[in-house]
UniProtKB/TrEMBL annotation:
Domain COG complex component COG2 C-terminal: 47-258
Protein name (record): Conserved oligomeric Golgi complex subunit 2
Native species: Sipha flava (yellow sugarcane aphid)
InterPro entries reported for this sequence: COG2, COG_complex_COG2_C
Domain of life: Eukaryota
Any Gene Ontology CC annotation: membrane
Biological processes, Gene Ontology terms: Golgi organization; intra-Golgi vesicle-mediated transport; protein transport
Residue ranges of coiled coil: none
Gene responsible for this protein: ldlCp_0
Length: 266
């Protein structure tokens, strides 16, 4: 592919050939080093880095957008993340810092792109939380999705520092320290806690509403046995089984207790 050929030739030219040529000019002459001459700058301009970046931007961005638009609820086979969208966005962010893609001279653009990917992922998560109410008709499937999304967001948020460390490793000797600190603050200032809390509240409210629809049937029990002369119940009523089944959709026991506490207070 053209971008791969471009960066391969670019790195061979500047990291090997031109670097050696520049060192040779410094060692043999006391005049101005080669990299400070106008001809050096003219040669660098021949390599159209903005065009290369646009190739990568479209390549990586389209990959993330396709998954967010078409595979919002798909699971993935990954040890870290549960949803395919989260895994894809994380891989796209890592691609920006892949040595076979990343160019130091474009570091500011790739850093901005990473921030855009994070922002786009946040927007998708908010939309997915809302749309799941209508697009995921099965109650259990929707609750499982919300739990997976909440889990992914927590891990994603925790791992953001890894992105900065990768960036720092690529640039530690090539950009001023204050620039690195500014980039670090941009990453660490990202806060997903409010979004995580919103999804958790939505999940608990959905389970609570579902459970309460069964709890209402408690009022039918006295009438049912009084007017039909049935024997005393020897096993839980159907509504109790439904309540337990609904609560089991929540993997977190603390969340289960929160729902139960709400039911008791009603």
């Amino acid at each position: 592919r053209e971008p791969d050929i471009f960066i391969q030739n670019y790195k061979v030219t500047f990291n090997e050939f031109m670097k050696h040529l520049n060192e040779l000019s410094i060692s043999q002459y006391e005049t101005e080093p080669l990299h400070k001459m106008q001809s050096w700058n003219d040669f660098k301009k021949c390599w159209n880095l903005p065009i290369y970046y646009q190739y990568r931007f479209q390549e990586i961005g389209i990959c993330a957008e396709n998954v967010m638009n078409n595979e919002s609820y798909e699971l993935c086979n990954d040890e870290t993340f549960k949803l395919k969208v989260t895994k894809t966005v994380w891989d796209c962010m890592n691609s920006c810092l892949d040595p076979n893609i990343f160019i130091v001279q474009l570091s500011h653009r790739f850093f901005k792109f990473i921030l855009q990917l994070i922002s786009r992922y946040q927007t998708w998560a908010k939309d997915a939380n809302v749309k799941s109410k209508t697009e995921l008709n099965d109650f259990s499937t929707r609750i499982t999705f919300l739990e997976d999304l909440e889990s992914d967001l927590k891990i994603f948020y925790f791992k953001l520092n890894d992105i900065y460390l990768m960036f720092e490793q690529l640039l530690c000797t090539k950009v001023p320290v204050d620039i690195l600190e500014l980039q670090k603050s941009c990453i660490l200032d990202i806060n997903l806690n409010s979004l995580i809390n919103d999804i958790n509240k939505c999940k608990l409210q959905s389970v609570t509403d579902e459970v309460m629809s069964y709890v209402i049937r408690v009022t039918d029990v006295p009438r049912l046995f009084r007017h039909t002369n049935r024997d005393y119940p020897r096993e839980p009523c159907a509504y109790m089984k439904s309540i337990v089944t609904t609560l089991k959709t929540l993997q977190n026991k603390i969340c289960q207790k929160q729902v139960l506490d709400h039911i008791v207070t009603q």
